[in-house]
Each structure stands twice: as structure tokens, then as C-alpha cells.
Fold each of these.
Amino acid sequence: MTDPLLALRPWEAPEVTSWGRLPMNTVDRRAGALSLDGPWRFQLLPAPDAPVGAVWSSTRVPGAWTMQDTDDLPQYTNIRMPYTEFPPRSPADNPTGVYEREVEVPAEWSGRRIVLQVGAAESVLLVHVDGRPVGLSKDSHLAAEFDLTGVVRAGQRAAVRLTVVKWSDASHIEDQDQWWHGGITRSVLLYATDPLHLADVAVRARRDGELRVDCRVRDAAGALPGGWYVTGELDGLPLAQDTALDRAHEEDGRVSDFLGEVRLRTVVRAVRPWSAETPELYGLTVRLHRADGTVSDTARYRVGFRDVEVVGRDLLVNGERVFVRGVNRHDFHPLTGRTVSPEDMRADLVLLKRFGFNAIRTAHYPNDPALYDLADELGLYVVDEADIESHDHAHEIADDPRYLNAFVDRVSRMVLRDKNHPCVIVWSLGNESDYGAHHDAAAGWVRRHDPTRPVQYEGAAKRGWADPDVASDIACPMYAPLEDCLAHALSGRQTKPLIQCEYSHAMGNSNGTLADHWAAIEATPGLQGGFIWEFWDHGILQRVSDGRPAGRGGAGLYDNGVTAPGHRWAYGGDFGEPYHDGAFVADGVVFPDRTPKPVLYEHRELAAPVRLRCFRHEGLVLANHQHFRGLEWLAAEWELSLADGGTLTAPAELPSLRPGETAVVPLPFELPADGGEAWLTLRVTTAEDLPWAPRGTEVCAPQLRLRAAVPAKEEPAVAAAVEVDGDGLLVHPLLTAAPTLSLWRAPTDNDELGGIATRWRSWGLDALVRRPLSVHRDGVSVTVVAEYAGPTGVVRHRQVLTPVEGGLRIDEEAELPEEFDDVARVGSVFATVAGLDLLEWFGQGPWESYPDRSAGAPVGHHSLPVDALFTPYLRPQESGGRHGVRRFTLTAPDATGLAVTLDEPRQVSVTRYRAEDLTAVAHHDELVPRDGCVVHLDAAHRGLGTASCGPDTFVSYLVAPGVHRWSWTLRVL
Ligand code: IPT
């Protein structure tokens, strides 16, 4: 007998979005639900219409089969589909998972309405119970519910079969930039309600305290029984029923026997409004009663009172033009793929809060429901995005009528699910799907159903940032050059808030110019922020021996971004995929194990709630840079870093300031009269335990320079010998490679994908050939002139080595030809003997910083083991730099070693790798650290930019041709 669900061939029928699926609603937390998570019988068929065999294995639900023990492994493609079939077709090889298990339906569910909920399945779900077809669903990131009343019997067993087809017409609109998986990725459960039940509850809570709760009631038996009523309470106080609404409905005859509607209301006096800074929540309980007063159904919500509106070119939350410090976040885990636990999501959001983020775009589909509860609780604004990305076939699909239903279905189901969350401030129609009538249809539905939130869609906004007719209330470009954003905001033609849906691409060593962006955003009305791309490096933990995902067994096999021996972070191509997009999937601000990358410290500082504005003779100007709260939640300590002394601390009293206010506070230290450079830092921490940070967690460390450095006097030469070899290379007891000129860095992902690395290679910067031209002794100094030649240009380099008290001064000069107009660096590189494993420096730190990513690294005395300086970006590249270094020592445990003093604050890196070590391998675990240190001192170092996807660094951060001079002293300790 042909199965009717299969006979439809629903995997190639975009018109079919569901069958037998219950409408989406907000009432899903019924007490007594039965979890069906855990082991299920499992078969992976080669195609949906292949016969189910007799041999079963076992698999775990929730979980993608691509991350468990099957031969269908994860595959990464960005834009292109992993197969050539055009929409709505899918390939003949179409892995299809058949999941089966028995369920004991509780005897006490007799007479009740029984519902099966499948949290998420990709990409087509077919449901059979006891061999009978029950329903089907598409949309891989939203739950599907099926009414099993009359299909299963209370007190008896039922066999549930869930068939999941991997490739379908729906895959063409789920073409997001991430790994392809297959399986059931969120929890499955069975629950029961009374036949008389809450079908949906919609909550509207405004910042003036007005609460409106619209309840819809159904009875499974059909017509509603007489006498039912609904009550509600907010934090224990009863809500009033809005009888006016009932009457109005009766008058126009809209109250039917099948669907009851009730509106409850109240006005909360002295309401505490919800915002990301003040995530105040109230507990709402809605109860549906039978005529005899007994409760037939209950729903609970946490309500946040807040308003969102677009007024002119401002997006206002509670009337305030808030800055949107956002990040794009996928549901991701290195062991389970797309299955994420509430604990993991809490850890994600806690980390975002600690690093100053206040917003998430759920790129590019509705995230796990727990995320919204957490964002409500912890305080994060959410741009909730529908599961639509048709990137590879965007143009065809946006106006292909066969897909119209799917677009409206996906957008509307997201809104129906998430509408009660205060965290959701904007609905997004999806990502990278061109712009067609389907988007207008979906936007129309949203605007009618939920007029309380704006709608955005990048594909529509692209038609014209100020175009009033497109399906986007926000100008939400991606990777727009800052100058274009500024020009728009200053043009007088701006009509909508400008908030980039993606910017500052975090691939590898990246996020250059973030500080420039924020300086412009904070200074320019009309610019309101954006969402960094993205939170995660999607590296999957992989066993190198058999190339398989480590899966859940891999827990504990990574630490601090680094994997255990025999394991690596896999990216595109590592599972043998024929088509893939390489390391482009590793472009997050955290490593796959959630270890923060250095950019996060930069971001934390740029988001600082407390700022030190300037230093005036009567004191310091301290500003509250928040939108809604004072500084009471913060504690602080002053720190004075003296270049020629140590670090002093003093307690700080934060003034009482309302949002936006400033106060002048007295200078907490007397500056020693004879010192040089002096820096004042305010270390700001949490004053009490918060849900996202224990007391004492650092929040920001704004800093001011109190006094500039006194220019160093040239040290007099002393009578001592400088030893150089026949090629003019310094011979020194602590150096295993003499200082030579370096113009090269191991290309970052930005350098590679932005194209500059290709130019560097064409100039031969990675293999310049040094030819000594002259070695000349002049008194005690030795002057060495050498040429560094590439195929297209020659750099002349002069090094003057002069003995000074206790060491050696090295004055260098390099003259770059005009054609070398944009090199990676100009500086010296040398290698040290083994055993010098501690770096102590005065300069910016302690974390990695580069010329265009150095706003979050305060100047001070820092110290780190050499092995901790390097950042293990998934694809090895230039890493570990420290900006603005004035001097440093590299020492062994007995404090012997070397000391370097630089003429000016310079870019320095101390690692175990030469640039060629880093370029030779594709994964971090393949690197073999050297015993000694590789030290770079740069007169100039190119900014990082974001050119792997978006603008390159600014001209001011480029290294110009012409003459560069730098000098440094080297002493033995
Ligand atoms: C943009 C995508 O929206 C996002 O999913 C991701 O691919 C990002 O770029 C790059 O990592 S689209 C790009 C073509 C600008």
C-alpha cells in the first residue's frame, strides 16, 4: 500500500509546507509533558522512497545524525547549494532518517487532547503513529505539533515513527552560510491538555504599565461548552476582564461556537520597564476555567513592559534612541552541531553580556526557544529572523509563486511563536533571498498581526535605504563602508534608522576599525549600531584518525580554544566534502569552545557604560554612558600606571549619575614630579552578583593618559665590541637568528580573501632575498647596509649597531620602493635561545592588539607566558601581536634573559612561530612550536580590517612606501 505522505513526494513540493500540523502558538509549557528525548531506533535510508529495512541501529534525539555514527557527515557550503538540482528539486541521493520508538501513553490522559511536539527537524518531517500517517512539516528551526487525540489511546503503547528527509524544496530556502546537517535537532515531547484549552495567548505590555492579554480558547470537541471563563494574574494581582471587547464581538457576531476570545487588562502603577539594561520581568498566569470554576488550562509568561517604535530615523526603546551593540548568532555546538542545551545558550548569552553586547540577530532562523527566555531574563534585544535564505537561487525563488506559501508560513509562525517576548524588538523576514513579492506578503502579514514592532529585511533595504515602499522599516545593510553610512546620515535624506544587520566580519584575526565605527556611530545622529558577524567559529571537533566528528564523547577534549592531541577544529573540506567553502565558517568572536577572541575585549571597552571623557585642571570628567540606569550596579578602582615606576591603586567612588550625565571628579593621585609617561585607568566591576556576572567581574577599564613620555635622550656609545658575521648579521649569545628586515606577515583571512596577500606574494615579500652590500666599522659602531630583493622591487636596509651601557642600540632604516605601496609590516625579526618563556612589557595589553584594533587594550605593565601570547585562530595566521609596546623583557625563571627598549610605542609580537611556519599549515594542531621565541618589532604594521567579507582597513592604517626608521636597545639581563 502506498503511503499517502510519501506519495505526495513532499520533498519536491514547495506548495506543501505542512499537513496535519497544528497552528503555532505561545502556549507550550503544559505540566506533565512526557519527554521523548533519548535513544530511538534509527535507520538511514539512501532516499525517502527507499524501503525501510529490518536492521535498526540506535540514535539519540535530539541530535543531528551527521554528528552521530552515520556515514553522512557534515558538509559546509556558504552560498552555493551542495548539489546541482534547481529548486524545487532535490538530488536522488537524499539521506533520510527513520526514527522509531514506542511511547506509553499515560492512563490518566484518558479523555484528554494529546499533542506531539517535534522541536526541529531538517528539512522535511513526516509523522506516522502505529503505521498511520499523522502529518508533515517543513521549516527546520521551528517546532511542529500534531494532534494525536484519537490516534493513540491512553494507557496503551503507540509506535511513533518520525521520518526526516534531508534535502528538499525547503533546503533551497534554508541555504544559510553554515554546516549542512540532517536530523531531529531539538527536543520531542508528548503532552496532554483538557479538550477545552488555551489555543493562544498574546501579551502586549507597554512601558506606561498598560497590559493587554488576548486569549483564544478552543475545545477539541468542536463547539465550546457554555460557562467557560478566563482569569489572569500578574505577580499575584488579578487582571480585569475587558467585557467591552466581548460585547463588541458579540455585536458583530464574531464570537463563534468554535473559538472564544477574551481580553484581560490591567495597568501597573509605578511599573519597572524592561530594557536590555533593566530586564525587569513580571510573572503572568492565565487560567482557563470550566463553568464549575475548575481550571482546564494554564499558561505562564514572563512579561516585560516596554515600547519599541521607529520615529523618524531613530529606533526607540522606551522612548530612547538606544545604541545597538549586536552580534549575529547561530545555534551551534562543536559536539552536537545544531543541538544546543539551555545551559549552553545561557553560557553564550552570559558571555555576550560580559563583553558589552546588548543585542542578538538570530541569524538566520528562529533560534532555540530557550534563547528568548534567556534574552528576556538577562537583557538582550533580539532581531528575530525567519528561516528563509535562498542565497544560491535567490532571484528565482523570491517571485516563484510555488514558494509564496513557504515565505509567509515561516515568517508568520516565527511571529506567532515569539510575540510575547519583550526581548524581540524587530522581526526580520530572513536573509539573502533577493527581494520579491513574497517578502511584501510576509511583511504585510506581520504589520497587521503585530503592529508593535518594526520589520526589517536587508534585501529590501538594499533597494534604497530611505525608500518608504520597501519591506523594511530599518535601513539594515550588511558590510556597508563606514563612509557610505556617514554620507547617508549626513545627507539630509535619511528617513529610517541605520543599523547594519552584519558588519565587522570576525574571520580569523580581524575586526579592525571597530573603534572607528563606534566613534562615528556615537557621534552621528542617524547611525545606531549594528550586528557583528558573528558569534561562533563553527569548528566541529573532529578526530584526526578517522575524520569523524568527535560527537558528545568529545566533551573535555578542548580548552582555551585549543584541541587535545589527535583532534582538531574541522572547517569546510575537512569531512571530505567535494564542494565546500573552507574556513569561511570560522568567523566568530569566540572559538568553537566559546573561548573569547581578543576582539571581545575591544568590544567590551567600546561598549563601556562609564567613560572618562577628558582631563581638566579641576579634575576628570566621568560620564554615565547608559540609556536607562545609574552607576549603582558598578564598583570601581583607580589605577595609575607609571612608565618609570609601577602601578598604584586607589579606591574609586562612582558619582551618582543619571543616564547621559557627567560629573567632574578629583584626580585620585598626585603625579610624581620626576616620572615620565603616566596613565590613569578606572577599573570598573560589578558591585554585586548579577545573573550574568558574579560581583567583581570587570565591565570596562576606561583610560586616560595623564602625562606624555619625555623623549628619551640618545644613549652615549661606550667602548665595547659589536660582533657581526661575514654577512653583517649580529652575533649575540641570546639570539639564534640575528635581527633582519621583515615586510611580511602570515596572511590573515582578511589578507587572503581581501586579495592583498596575492599582491604581497607577487612582490615576493614572503621570500625577499637578503644581500649584504657593505659592513662598515665606524669607531665602536658597525653599519650594515643590505638589500632585500623581490621579483619586482628592492628594499634598501641599513642597520647601525652601537654598543651602549649594558647592551646595544640598533638604529634601522628601510626604504621601500613606490611599488610596495601596501605591505604587511616594516620591522625587525629575530629569534632567541630556548628558555626565555616569560614576556613582561609596558605597553598595551594584556590581550592581543593591532593598530586598528587596540582601543580595548589599556597601557600598563603586563606580563604573560610566551605560550599564552599566541591566539590559535583556526587557520593559522598572523597572531599574538601587542600594540603600543614601549619596552619588554623576555626572561627565564631565574630572571636572566634579554630586555628591549623601543624608541616609540611599537607593534611587537613574541611567538613560537615564524611567519612561514604559520603559512605552511591549514590547522592549528599541525603547528610545531619552536623552542625559542620569534620576536617581531615593527616600525609600522598594517591594520587588520575586515576584507574577508567587507571593507578593508582604513588608509590611515596602511604601511606607506618610502623611508621608515626605528631604533631599539637590546640588553642582557
Ligand atoms: C553574509 C551572510 O548573510 C552571512 O550568512 C555570512 O555568509 C556572511 O555574509 C559572511 O560570513 S552574505 C555575504 C555575501 C555578504
Note: The longest strand covers residues 897-911.
Amino acid sequence: MDNSNQWWKDGVIYQIYPCSFADSNGDGVGDLQGIITHLDYLEELGVDAIWLSPVYPSPMVDFGYDVSDYCGIDPLFGSLDDFDILIREAHSRKIRVIMDLVLNHSSDQHPWFLESRSSSDNPYSDWYIWRDGKPGGKRPNNWSSWFGGWAWEYDEGRGQYYYHMFGKLQPELNWRNPQLREAMMEIFRFWMDRCVDGFRLDVFNQYFKDARFRDNPQKLGLRKFDRQTHIYDTDQPEMKGAVEEIRQVTDAYPERYVVGESFLVGPEGAAKYMGDGKLHAAFNFELLNCPWDAGRMQAALQRWENALGEDAWPTLVLNNHDNKRSSSRYRTGENDDRNKAAAVLLLTARGTPYLYYGEEIGMRNIHVPYSQIQDPPGKRYFPLFPTRDACRSPMQWDNSPQSGFSSSAPWMTVHPDFPYRNAAAQRDDPESLYNVYRKLIALRKEHKALQEGLYMPLTFEPKTLMAYLRQTKDEMILVAINFGRKPVRLFLGSDLAGKTWNLLLSTRREKLEQPQGNAIRLLGNEALVVDLD
Ligand code: NOJ
């Protein structure tokens, strides 16, 4: 199969949280037709692919990350026919479609689990992780759940415990069972036969647990989950073989892409699953977890670079559906200067940038009082940790009621800033954050150096200044970002300062004077992208 077109390297990927993107039928929840209606917007923004958070049939206890049928579409979102239209319409605009596959666990309502829990000698009995308790009615071991509490749930019918890293209605599948594994590969084929271009694998390195079910060592921590080192319940060596098998299956189709969401591991842990014969990419959440600090950001990029093998390709992520939005993390008030500078980093560093819907207009987290929390861990850990609902509010399309998202009350509150912070207003404003994103995406498309060029950190002054070169044999692009409010000077050797400076983009000004002496001055929170001739 010809897989030489590595579109995912050069491309920009846009995550859609379907519940919150656009509601076409007025039930307050986003749907596939809603997405179809807004494909022109995504084309204009310039994204190369959309990743859909799960749209499969689901009881929605974890908003679709609890799947009850891997080969269907939940009626809430539409039908398989709608899905085929979405694929067709997206492809006609040169936008690829990436599905979110949640193969570590299913819903407890999946027919496989209903069968599995019905007896210990049916064909599906071993498709989930069942264990006897220890004498005295104790749980099989000390493993804890990321959603809170223990990871074992007792089932009266089987007289055994089943394992769940997430909610207790999300039992974990047993990847050691060959039939289960083959069923998983069929799911990939099912969607690729429907012309899906790639997959995002939910918590993929969680598929295998220790074969001997040993207790995790204990440590100090805030939540029960943090009070153990997760060496036996996740990231087991058997995962390598599964990753290779997935790659073989997807390589049998042209130009398919697989990105894994690595769980509880840093860049080094993620990197071991990436490269030829393995996943095309895995997420690095280091940037997302960095405070607004030049040195920390640059160190995060460098740690990723150090961890990656030659055949691996980085990902760049500032936002997703599990984390506080970057515009709220960077405490930007109503001003978007920091968000613009962050966009420059995301779209000019080395790797595939991922955008999360609404990031391009600087949507902020909403305030969610306890009574309105819908996210299970959000409820459990209130007020210790912010609920994930807060970053999943309806897309702010325009200033009409419900921000143009729906004709009726939406499933989650719209941010009250929507009358002035919305896509329609920002499209018309040449100075807006949206237009910075759009221009940067266009620049990436035009300049090979920004896609595949060498990444060379230049210098940084901890906390304030970050600068790097992106370079191919034909072009050299300088990126400089001032993280501080005050102007700073970037000192360059005479070699660089002596070149002709063509401003490709500044987040704060129209024109750039040629450097005076060996230095260039950046305004407060300004980011520059300059072509050096
Ligand atoms: C990771 C997903 O990103 C998150 O939203 C979900 O709750 C867990 N996996 C469980 O599927």
C-alpha cells in the first residue's frame, strides 16, 4: 500500500467535541449534521483533519467514552448515513476525518459485557478482566480508579470482581483474549472501509495490566489514585505487540494515521510506541501542562525532542476536552495577546499541531456550579479539581441566542462572553485571535520549514523569551515569543541580524524595522515569525 503521503506530518488537526459543536435538530446537543453545516468554517480556517470525540451509541455516562456499540452512531448525533455524508462532505473540502476509538474499556451496556457478566462459561466470559476476591471478601488487589475509589467492582451474578480504571460503568476489556483482539481489529477495518482517515486511540497504553495482578507500590498523594505508583495497572510490555498489530491492520489501507493518547507516562513513555511499524504519533501533554513561562515551554519541547527516535514525529497540544482551556490557564482576562503568542508556538514548533474547538476564538472555561456538574470525576473531586464540563461548553458561533449553537437550551451553559467573543465577530476583525490562527495555518502550508524543517532552539531567558529557528536547505524562519508584559531584546549574532528580515507575522504590529545592531526588540507578549533571507 502506498503510504508515502504523510499528510499528518504537515497537517493541522482540529478536535471536535460533538456534543458541543453545533446542534442541527434543536435538542440542545451537537450532532453530525451540525458539524456538516460548519465544514466551510473549518475549510476557511485551513485545518487538514478533524478528530471527532466518540459518536458511537453510548449511555453517555462518560460522554461517549463509554461505548455500547463500536460500529454505529448514537441517535443523539445522527445515523450512519449522516456519518457517510460527513465523510463525503469533509473529503470534498480536503478535510480528513479521524475517529476516537475507545478500546480499553466499553460501556457496561455493551452486549459483550452483558454476556460476559451473565456467567463464567459463555463465549464472552473472558472478554473483560474478571478476578476472584481475596479470602475474607477482599478486593483482588490495591489498584485504584482514576475516576475515584477502588478499581474493582463486585458483580453478584458472577461472584467475581471486574476491573475499571475509569468509571465503574466502564469495564475494561481483556486484550489477552485472542477473539477480543480480532474483534478490535475488525473495528478498525469497519471504519476504514467507511473511508475514515485515522484514529485517535483513547488511553491506548492502558490496554494491558500486569499478568500477575501485583499490588502497586504506595506513595504520598492527594487522592487515592495519587497515593500509588501505577506500575502494574498500566503501560505493560505486552502493549508493544498490540501497537504493531494495529499498525499492520491500518497500513493495509492507504494513508491512514493512528495517534495514541498515552496515559500516565511522559514523553519518554509515549515515544517508545511511536515510529515505523508502531503508532504514527502519540500525544505529548507536556506543553499543555506548562505554566506561562518561556523556559518551561522550551524545556518541554526539548524533552520531547530528546525522547523521540529518528522515525517518530512529535505532536503539539495546548488544549483538549479533559483540561482547563489554555486561555483560562494563562489568565488572560479579555486580552488575547498571550493566546496569540501561544498560537504562534503551537503552529510553528516542530510537530503536528492539535487545536480544540473554540481555541481559535479564545473560548474561556465556563463556571459550573456543583448542581450543574455532569462529569463524573468533576462531581467526585469538587471543589478540589475543576470539572471537565468547564472546557466543554457550546461553541460560540455568533451573538444570537445560545450563541448560534442551538435553537433550544443547550446541554451545558454557554459562556456569558459569547455576545462579543464569537466566530462571526472574529472572522470580521482582522486583528482577532481567529485571524492569527488562520494566518498561521496558512503560513505552515506555504513554508516547508515550518512543517518539516529543523527545529533549533536559539536562546531563552527563563520565564520571558523563547526563540527558535525552523530551517530547510532553502529557507530559514525565526520565531521569537515574548512571554512577558514588558518589551525585551533578543540578541542575535551578526550573521542572523545581518540578513534581510521579512516579517511573516507579528501578533502585535504590521511592520518590522530591520534589526539595529545585533538585536531585535519585541513588544510585550509579542510573537514574531520572520523569514531570514
Ligand atoms: C481519556 C479521555 O480523554 C477521557 O475524556 C475519558 O474520560 C477517559 N479516557 C476514559 O475513557
Note: Residues 62, 65, 102, 166, 202-203, 261, 321-322 surround 1-deoxynojirimycin (CB under 6 Å).
Amino acid sequence: MTPIINYAHRGASGYCPENTMIAFKKGLELGATGIETDVQRTKDGKLVLIHDESVERTTGQQGEIKDLTYDEISRLDAGSWFDSAFAGERIPLLDELLDWAAPTELILNLELKNNMEAYTGMEEQVIAAIQQRGLSARTIISSFNHYSLATCKQLAPDIRTGILYGDNLYHPWAYAQSVGAEALHPYHLFLTEEIVQQAAAHGVISNPFTINEPERMRELIQMGVAGIITDYPDRLAELLSSTVS
Ligand code: G3P
Ligand code: MG
């Protein structure tokens, strides 16, 4: 059986400030086999890892990513809001994550945050960064912007894509296939065993988000999901090791 991928959501964001290098490293240390992260783009065209369109929540400063240069963004403290022990953590470049992850065996789930901001041409940039490092087979691109996923599939058919959604889609596997996607990335309450099984029967895998309770993780594992996205990869790692043994 294919092992279930344990995706650390924004890194091990239950323990570290989300989407920072220390959170990604902590994820690996805690047993994650995958990293989920959010990609946005600066005013000067650099791809950076941050969830919100604005820097306010995670740095305490004002400004939209699209209006700030990378030089400005690189000086912000993205750690103190979480805990003063993380003061000085920065908003990373996508390149930093990819360079660090390349020699590991981690699976990368890159979520393109181009639903609110179009970031025209972002797909080409992300795909180039993946291909330069030979990471196509270890990467899955997801987005709430399904037009963007269709673009990714046209640009790089060998890089897997997953549709993010938070609704009761009817036959989501059929819809995913219409976008060219290989995976469902639903908010976990919209998955049922029948959906997981039907999707799998059509060659579409399920990677729900964001599950932090071991009981719910257990239910999803029993349904047959391919991966679970969690803020606490240690909890899932423990569950998976006890399930296997
Ligand atoms: O990719 C799963 C999850 O991260 C999607 O929602 O808002 O946490 O990026 P969000
Ligand atoms: Mg995300």
C-alpha cells in the first residue's frame, strides 16, 4: 500500500510561526513526509511563502505583498507574532524552501495564492523553479483558482495538481478531471468515504485539510485518503506508525 503522506501545513505551524524555514524544518523533524505552503508574489516579481495577501497578521507591519519589494519584505520579522523566541524569522523565498527540500525526500504541496490576486504569469515562474531542481515528481500544485491549475497542467503535464475547495461538490473527481487535476484537496468535512473511494476508482487521490485531531485523522485514514494536511505532523506520524505496526 502507498504510504499516506503527512503534510505539515504551512510547516509545523502548531509549533512554529507558519510558513517560515524553521517551521518547515520542524515539520521534517516531527515526522512530516510532505510540506504544504502558500505562494504569493512581491512587487518586483519574487515568489515568497506567506498565507495572507497582506503582511499585517504575521509581521505586524502594513502592506500588501504585491505592493512591497522583496528587499522590504526580507527585513520583516515573521516570527515574533507567534512567540518572541522566534524573533527574526523571515518570510522565505520559494527558492529557499526548494533548495532546502531538494536533498530530502519530502513531497512539496505548493499552494498558489492567486485567487484574490491574479499574479499573472506566476504559474510559469513556479513551474520553472520546480523543474530547475528536478522536483516535478515530488511536487503537487494546488489552488482555489482552478483556472490557474488548468494553466499549470498545460505548461507541465507531469506535475500533479489538486483542486482546493470548501463546498459539497457533486462528483468532485469528475470535476477535478475536467481541470486536468489528479487530486482533491477539500476542507476535510466535505469528504465522505464514498467520495474518497469513487475518486480513487477514477484515479483521483484525496488530500484533505486541515486536520489536527487524531480521531478525525483516523477516520480519514480509514476512508482511504492519500495524504493529510495538518498543523501537527507529530500527531499524524504517531498515528501512522501505530496503525502500521
Ligand atoms: O492547502 C490546504 C490549505 O492550506 C488551504 O487553505 O487557507 O490554509 O491556505 P489555507
Ligand atoms: Mg495553504
Note: The beta strands are 5-9, 34-41, 47-49, 107-112, 139-143, 160-165, 183-186, 205-206, 227-230.
Amino acid sequence: MTAAGDQRRLVPAPPPLQDPEAAAAPAVRLLFDRATVQARVAELGAELRADYAGVEPILVSVLRGGVMFLADLVRAAAMPCLVDFMAISRFDASEATGVVRIVKDLDLDLSGAHVLVVEDVVDTGLTLTYLLRVLATRRPASLRVCALLDKRARRIVDVPLSYVGFEVPDVFVVGYGLDLDERERGRGEILAVDDLAAVRRDPTLLDLAGPPHGGADLRGTGPAVPAVPSQRAEPS
Ligand code: IMP
Ligand code: MG
């Protein structure tokens, strides 16, 4: 070993080159924790119960993002109501028009009914505007919207929202029904993803409020389903 070699070992290695701003900016932020989401849903439920007293509205959910919200909202409202589901797919991949194809239509007849569309997030407003136009042709007695999240800064068409859970900034939001590549819908909290590429590389960045699904990290378990212990009592 040369003296120069020994000396080089004593000099600490420089830190890897990185953009100081990128290092400071977190990839994910917690927007609303579980308790905040549940408290707001309870308030909205109480509002619906008061506003729809004496009538039995039809709550319409658009699959799949709005399902968690709808499920909690009907329980919070604890009022007589019907629920129905639609599934839509965009005609226009550029998302420029909002024209959608109905993949699964409602089963219930809306004519003469008080209809409340329960949406996850209103972004440009294009999808919802198109949907409301379609539903209006079915002659409901009233047609309103309850949106969990209002991303107002992104609005292209003005669409009246009768009930709003929270306003959110122009950022990709995930959790409580909202997906990232079809995953993460089961989280009770709502997260803002500022760096999608970083989160796709490392989904554990989303675990700001603890891992999803009550503690067990089920990501990447693939087709190998762990054995579920039998709940049945052994015959005696
Ligand atoms: P809009 O037609 O631009 O208002 O888009 C509405 C639909 O896009 C929503 O119902 C969501 O399904 C989806 N979407 C918009 N923003 C987000 C987001 O930040 N996270 C997840 N889905 C979103
Ligand atoms: Mg939606």
C-alpha cells in the first residue's frame, strides 16, 4: 500500500451530487388524515339528512373512485336513500372534451327522483358536466352533486357543486378511493403526490400516515396468497 493510497482513504467521500431543491421537496404530503376525512364526511352526512328530509334520494356513484366516499357518506347520512352505480370510460384519451361512454349504466329509473351524484374529485369538470347532461335527460325531480374534493384551480367548465368535502390544490391526490395506477384506494387518508416518478419507484413514500390496510404492507405480494387460518372451531 502506498502512502498516497492511505491518505486517500482518510479523505471522506463527497456526498452524491443532488439538486438541493429536489432534495428538500418531499415527494408526498399528507393533505387530510383519516380523522379529518371522517369528521368532514360526518358533517356532509348530517347536511344531506337535513336537506333531504322527507324524500328518498338516489345517490349515484361513478365507479371506481367514489365508492369509499359513497359507502361512508350513506352511513353518516343515516337517512332513507337508494344507491346506484355507473361506470364510464373516456372516448377521448386526451381528456379534452369530457365525452364518455357509459360502460355500466344505472339500474334505477331516475324519472321524478331526487338524484345526488357522489363524486370523488372534480378536476377540469368535463366528465361531470357530460354526465350531468346525460342524467338530466332522464327527467329527475332534482339533480345535485356532492364532491369529496374540489380541485378548483384546474376547472375548465363551471359545474355547480352543492356539497364539497375539501378544496385541494392543483396536485395529484391519492387515497380514500383515489388511485395511483389503480392502487392505494384503500387508504383512509388523502395524500398529495408531488413527485409521481419517485412514488412509482418507491411506493413506501406514501406511508406518511402509516402503512395502508391497518398495518400490514400487502404491496407486491403477487399471486402468492398467504394461508388464512381457519376460523371454524375444530370438531370436538
Ligand atoms: P375531470 O373530468 O377532469 O373533472 O376528471 C374527473 C376524474 O378524473 C375524477 O372523477 C377522477 O376519477 C380523475 N382524477 C382527477 N384528478 C385526480 C387525482 O388527482 N387523483 C386521482 N384521480 C383523479
Ligand atoms: Mg370520479
Note: Confidence is low (pLDDT under 50) at residues 1-5.
